[in-house]
Amino acid sequence: MIRLLAALAVAGLFGATLAGFAARLGHPFELFSHFRPHWAFAAALLAPLALLVRQRWAAGALAALALVNTGAVIAGVRGGVRVPPADAEPQLVLVWANLEYNPEALDEVAALARRHDADIVALTELPSGAPNWTALLPGLPCVSVPAHRDVFTVALITRAPCRQAETASPEQWRHAARFIETPEDPRLIALHPIPPMTPEALARRDAVIRATVETARRRNADILVGDFNATPWSPVMMDVRRAGFRPIDCGAPWRSTWRRRHMLTGLPIDLAYAGPRIARARCRVGEATGSDHFPLVIEFDLAAQ
After folding, report:
1. Of 43, 54, 154, 183, which has fewest CB within 10 angstroms of its CB?
2. pTM surpassing 0.70?
């Protein structure tokens, strides 16, 4: 019986790991790639138990699976933007949040932005109605909110006057990504593609991300931020890295942004990536706001021109 249980554990985690590495074949394999920390943790937990019951072959296989999944996770988060010293004053502060249509979450995020004296606030899943942006975010007069609202609409509010605000994704999904530029810089794209729950949704999510990255390269964007509905180690986000955008460390995999803040109880799908002009950046996951997502507070410096 013990040998059978060990075999089932190895087979289950091997299958989940293999499915994750087959992510580029599409749905449903792609979904398994997001849970690599979970597979690594489960394998690392079960390996010593297998040793205790004298199933050395299973212990070795589980240890190997833990290492393979851990390596894949590290590949998605390593080599990020340099972090400034703890006492350094940032040039710019950006707050990102998925509000889950919750007016209370909007109030909490606005208070967070005021506390950090944010220069840019980027939001999605906006509550219904027309918020009083001037009262919520005094000192941030540039408000770019599309007239058409849907679940993926992105709003951008900035301190500096807007030079340009436009869509950054294909026309049929035009509200899923917004590009904004201000005279004092920076150039920012915020996006919110669809979750990859079906083959069609996966194709649409990847199309939005890839088109947005292409826009970012063409317009020399400094930061990509948003609810990517993808983890840093998933194939599409590895492609973002290959396109020249470096991850900004927001605590993944230890810190999650969806459902729960902690590893294994949520997923880090609210992410930020830096273009070549970002010299240093620091990011942290904020406290609960009433949304099913946690906000990001990103402090960053632009390199001297």
Report:
1. 183
2. yes
